[in-house]
Amino acid sequence: MPNYWLMKSEPDMFSIYDLRKRPKQREHWDGVRNYQVRNMLRDDFRVGDQAFFYHSSCKEPGVAGIMKIVRAGYPDHSALNPEGEHYDPKHTLETPRWYMVDVEFERVFKRVVTLEEMKQCLELQDFAVVQRGSRLSILPVTAAQWKFILSLEDRRSREVLDGC
DNA sequence: GCCAACGTTGGC
DNA sequence: GCCAACGTTGGC
């Protein structure tokens, strides 16, 4: 069984539309510098997993679409570059500290499923993204949560906010 | 731009 | 190993 994930990115920096424009519609998901998230990237991501592309720190935070994992965790080479903003001198080829995966664009949602809507839904109260102070940039998603969020895509947001 | 939440750092 | 200070995330 594949895993499901939610991966956050600020659309001003890198959006799902940017991913769609990349060669082969693929990109490295690099720059993660949090140990909990590092462990997920290193140990739990598998080829064939799917992930929600979540737009954060923007006008309408929420799930914008879907991507798939096309390469499992491997050392994040952005940590090797002393000129780069993600440089870490403690990360080396021999003893990597930080990991990344490769993702591939799958599709853009018909509409953004917003954080505001997700907060209204009883079905998602256990989902970390709706909880205060949850700041991890990657979160695991259960099969039930995945399915439920997909069902929200096909509803009108007003209806979800009023009646979920 | 504010600030709550939480992770990291470093002095002791 | 404690904990205060500081930095970052990210919604609002």
What's the layout of helices and strands?
Blueprint (H helix, E strand, L loop, with lengths): L3 E6 L6 H6 L4 E4 L5 H9 L6 E6 L6 E14 L23 E16 H6 L17 E4 L1 H11 L3 H7 L1
Parallel strand pairs: 1-3
Antiparallel strand pairs: 1-6, 2-5, 3-4, 4-5
This protein binds a DNA duplex (12 and 12 nucleotides) through loops.
Order of helices and strands: EHEHEEEHEHH
CATH superfamily: ph1033 like domains
Give the CA-CA distance, first to last residue. 29 Å
Strand portion: 25-35%
Structural class by SSE content: alpha+beta
Q: Helicity level, as a percent range?
A: 10-25%
Instruction: Supply the CATH architecture.
Output: Roll
Strand segment tally: 6
The neighbouring-strand order within the major sheet is 2-5-4-3-1-6
- Stated plainly, the CATH topology is called ph1033 like fold
Radius of gyration: 16 Å
If helices are DSSP runs of H or I spanning 4 or more residues, what is the number of helices?
5
Q: Uncertain spans, ≥5 residues at pLDDT below 50? A: none
Number of domains: 1
Categorize the overall geometry: elongated
Largest sheet report: 6 strands, mixed
In summary, what is this structure?
With 164 residues, this protein is of the alpha+beta class. Helix content is 24%, strand content 30%. The structure holds a DNA duplex (12 and 12 nucleotides).
Q: What do these coordinates show?
A:
This protein has helices at residues 16-21, 35-43, 115-120, 143-153, 157-163, and strands at residues 4-9, 26-29, 50-55, 62-75, 99-114, 138-141. The mean pLDDT is 91. By secondary structure, the chain is of the alpha+beta class. The protein has one domain (4-163): ph1033 like fold (Roll), CATH 3.10.590. It has a six-stranded mixed sheet with strand order 2-5-4-3-1-6. The chain binds a DNA duplex (12 and 12 nucleotides) through residues 8, 10, 34-36, 56-58, 61, 115, 132-137.
